TrEMBL record, chain A:
Residues 96-301 form the ABC transmembrane type-1 domain. GO terms for molecular function: dipeptide transmembrane transporter activity. InterPro entries: BPD_transp_1_N (IPR045621), MetI-like (IPR000515), MetI-like_sf (IPR035906). Keywords: Cell membrane, Membrane, Transmembrane, Transmembrane helix, Transport. The keyword Kinase does not apply. It is a multi-pass membrane protein. It is found in: Cell membrane. One of its GO terms (cellular component) is plasma membrane. Its main location: membrane. This is ABC di/oligopeptide transporter inner membrane subunit.
From TrEMBL, chain B:
It comes from Oceanobacillus indicireducens. It is a multi-pass membrane protein. The keyword Cytoplasm does not apply. Belongs to the binding-protein-dependent transport system permease family. This is Diguanylate cyclase.
Length: 315, 301
């Protein structure tokens, strides 16, 4: 198991390296950089541009810049923002908790909604309830989460005259205000995610319910509740957990739009703010963190298989 | 009797093959229509939207970008079925024209991604070895960036334009198609009929075109229909953030972004474009589900 984790980690680092190189090269290959943006209207001479480029380290070749940056990352230094001059590590540190909290809240909400509904849908297979739940879940997949956010905001404002408190506060500063600010975007993200959890749980539970061992357990006279929760659901969890792992990519992407609607200063809105400003070090770091989170979650998912399924643990 | 038939079939073999293929497609269509009711309704809805989008100038009561100073933020009434926006533009007409952008981005992205993804996946799956390894690492690293973040990154770098949105979304979708095609190609490569074909001297291109492509159409079609929905949502999200379709074009995402400033005074601005967007995506998702049930019963429960 340890060997497996180590192998996966090494592979993950390789993928991250490729990913960062891709981002690095694309960003610099596209016309327009921070120097021209900053000095666009000032009528700066060629010389001034060159001085500024040298100051920011943009005069070296792309590969040299990439090498220097990776060397810094390995030492825990993500560079400094080209616009604000603040260390990127500081900026990221401030932003990560918000995006993490939002993602975790959404995953918990989605699991709480999705798994029970999926089980009900599977148990009541082909009934009216099942059809209704299935159509609702496709509907949940089709509604863009940012529209859901707008509808929730509009509805609450019109009906109850309530809007989330302004001015972001962290959970440790003021948990009540923080939860009021976070719950709506979390619900929006959770609805799409729970829709796919419903679908996956339903088909996985159905498949297990049709297998031979369930027939054996039933014929031994086990209660239906035990059959479903102890045996069918437990054996379906592997596919549900895999799905959640894969959907984390979607979730992290969704944070960008929702953070921008609900004015949450998270990592997603950071990317959005800095890409158009061409703040290379910040974008690189943010993309790196997003990629690393995604890969880590999927590694954790693979490790969890062993925990859920003893057959994998012991092989 | 059978002797006679074989003789008469021989000279028209090519024609016959085409005829049987056509009638098979016809039979498939009839079977789809009779067994997948929801899929049929979704397909009809999508066709309807396509017709409306094409004939937008005829159907739309107003010019989608024409401003009307007399009717700012007018509530829905007989003249303006879905009200007007902050510049007095007719929302109903803008939604009809907006379908053009969603469909254009959807079709362009899905078709280009299928072509490029299939070529890459075929090369990877057919040749295997080092080529496969390099291609797969590159695909993995693209997929390691959350899709919308990658799209945002590319679209923001390239600047707001429909063309750039399509480029960004194609880059996201290519690895997904390539992965499916690669898997299918590796499976097909090992089958007896490919071995037989190879043993009589068929080259790589012939094997791919004659055996590879036809045998992987089912997963590609299902994937395409689902990718459509995701692409349309992604276009709307990018336009919503202001890095997709540039104003004053009537993109649904852009309309919603504009509407978010008038949520309380003009809620219809938030409502209608979102409904249009959700319905179109829903139709593609339901069609995708129906196609999956129909083409690959193994995949559905």
């Amino acid at each position: 198991m340890v060997e497996y984790i180590v192998r996966r980690l090494i592979y993950g680092v390789l993928v991250l390296l490729l990913m960062v190189t891709f981002v690095f090269v694309v960003m610099r290959a596209v016309p327009g950089d921070i120097v021209t943006l900053q000095l666009a209207d000032s009528g700066a001479s060629e010389e001034q541009i060159e001085v500024l480029e040298a100051e920011l380290g943009l005069d070296k070749s792309i590969m040299a810049q990439l090498g220097a940056w990776i060397k810094g990352v390995v030492q825990g230094d993500l560079g400094t923002s080209l616009w604000s001059g603040l260390p990127v590590t500081e900026i990221i540190k401030e932003r990560i908790p918000i995006t993490l909290q939002l993602s975790i809240m959404s995953i918990i909400l989605a699991t709480l909604i999705g798994i029970p509904i999926g089980v009900i849908s599977a148990v009541k297979h082909n009934s009216f309830v099942d059809h209704l739940l299935r159509i609702t879940s496709v509907g949940g997949l089709s509604i863009p989460n940012f529209w859901l956010g707008l509808i929730l905001l509009t509805g609450l404002a019109l009906l109850f005259n309530w809007i989330p408190p302004l001015g972001f506060q962290s959970f440790f500063e003021n948990p009540i205000v923080n939860l009021q600010q976070m719950i709506l975007p979390a619900i929006c993200l959770a609805i799409t995610l729970s829709a796919s959890i419903v679908r996956m749980t339903r088909s996985a539970v159905l498949e297990v319910l049709h297998s031979d061992f369930i027939r054996t357990i039933r014929s031994k006279g086990a209660k239906e509740r035990v059959v479903i929760y102890k045996h069918a659901l437990r054996n379906s969890l592997v596919s549900v957990i895999t799905l959640i792992g894969l959907q984390v990519g979607y979730l992290l992407g969704g944070t960008v739009v929702l953070e921008s609607i609900f004015s949450l200063p998270g990592l997603g809105s950071l990317i959005f703010e800095t890409v158009s400003a061409r703040d290379y070090p910040v974008i690189q770091a943010a993309v790196l963190i997003f990629g690393a989170m995604f890969l880590l979650v999927n590694l954790v998912v693979d490790v969890m298989y062993g925990w859920v399924d003893p057959r994998i643990r012991n092989s | 009797m059978s002797q006679v038939q074989v003789e008469s079939e021989f000279p028209i073999k090519k024609n016959l093959a085409r005829r049987t293929r056509l009638s098979r497609i016809k039979n498939q269509c009839i079977r789809f229509i009779s067994t997948q009711r929801i899929g049929l309704i979704s397909a009809l809805f999508i066709i309807l939207v396509i017709i409306v989008a094409i004939s937008a100038p005829v159907i739309a009561p107003f010019d989608p970008v024409e401003q009307n100073r007399e009717a700012f933020l007018a509530a829905p009434d007989v003249q303006h079925l879905m009200g007007t926006d902050d510049l007095g533009r007719d929302v109903f007409s803008r939604i009809i024209y907006g379908a053009r952008i969603s469909l254009l981005v959807g079709f362009a992205t899905v078709i280009i991604s299928i072509i490029l993804g299939t070529i890459i996946g075929m090369i990877s799956g057919f040749f295997g070895g080092v080529v496969d390894m390099i291609i797969q690492r590159v695909m993995d690293s693209i997929m390691a960036i959350p899709a919308l973040i990658l799209a945002l990154f590319i679209a923001a770098l390239l600047g707001p334009a429909v063309k750039n949105v399509i480029i960004a979304l194609v880059i996201i979708e290519i690895p997904r198609f390539a992965r499916i095609v690669r898997g299918e190609m590796m499976r097909i490569r090992e089958t007896n009929y490919v071995e037989a074909s190879r043993s009589v001297g068929a080259n790589a291109l012939r094997i791919i075109m004659r055996h590879g492509l036809p045998n992987m159409m089912a997963p590609i079609i299902v994937m395409a229909s689902l990718a459509f929905g995701q692409t349309i949502i992604a276009e709307a999200s990018l336009s919503f953030l202001g890095i997709g379709t540039p104003p004053p074009n009537p993109s649904w995402g852009l309309m919603l972004s504009n509407a978010s400033r008038y949520m309380e005074s003009a809620p219809w601005l938030v409502f209608f474009p979102g409904v249009a967007l959700s319905l179109l995506v829903l139709a593609f998702n339901l069609l995708g589900d129906a196609l999956r049930d129909f083409l690959d019963p193994k995949l559905s429960s």
